[in-house]
Hints:
- Helix 2 (23-52) packs antiparallel against helix 3 (56-71), helix 2 (23-52) packs parallel to helix 4 (78-99) and helix 6 (137-144) packs across helix 7 (146-160).
- A hairpin with a 2-residue loop joins strand 2 (169-174) and strand 3.
- The longest helix has 30 residues, at 23-52.
- The chain has a 6-stranded mixed sheet, sandwiched between helices.
- The model is unreliable at 1-30 and 272-276 (pLDDT under 50).
- With 276 residues, the protein is of the alpha+beta class.
- Helix content is 54%, strand content 15%.
- The chain folds into 2 domains: 2-99, no CATH class; 110-267, Alpha-Beta Plaits (2-Layer Sandwich), CATH 3.30.70.270.
Amino acid sequence: MAVIxxxxxxxxxxxxxxxxxxxxxxxxxxxxxxxxASLVELHQxxxxxxxxxxxxxxxxxxxxxALELATAETPQVPEQIRQEVARLRREHxxxxxxxxxxxxxxxxxxxxxxxxxxxxxxxxxxFAVALVxxxxxxxVNDTYGHLVGDRVxxxxxxxxxxxxxxxxxxxxxxxxxxxxxxxxxxxDAAWAVAEAARARVExxxxxxxxxxxxxxxxxxxxxxxxxxxxTSPEQQLRLAxxxxxxxxxxGRNTVAYRVGGQVRLSGAAGQRxxxx
Length: 276
């Protein structure tokens, strides 16, 4: 980099024009070079994340800083560079986290869900997708207002995330729909997680939020054993959506899943029974 070359020339002049740097000085120069490169890359990466969220002014500022660093005529003091790299790494981690979180519920968003579905799909192991929908949520908004509706969504996410297995997570799929991605679980274990979540929502004292309020959810659970070839996110979500529809048609507040090709129900639908 031009910055480093000019910095080396300055060091040589201060040493009386010596032709070669000592080994410690060479290491110091190399460290400055790498740290300045890290600064440029971090600014560019943060700018990309901010732009993906439509925060154009902040993205522009980071790109401007990256350009200034790349074309600077004098090197920064190494300690200043290290501090700036540490600060930007923290800022990058925060920007990255915000880019994959839903702003209202703080659950993961659709972008993160799609990424993780691609990672866990295929023959590498079994996993389940549980598609969750709040029952009659429009009635909640119409009766109690959207502020209460927002509070309900936030509380449902808290309940969905209770006791999730390792590597499992909750993501907002859209509106009042959420997805629980459950990697590494057998079919029965995945159904048990979904049924426990349904029961927690049903039993929560919703009247604490608003008198007369009662909230339930319906869930469709699609399980991928890693051998059937259903590897795409669209296929897996389509299966879960079909089971969710069955849960809704069966009276809501229900979990629907498949066992041996037959649909089974739990929750408000009463005792589990096979359906074609």
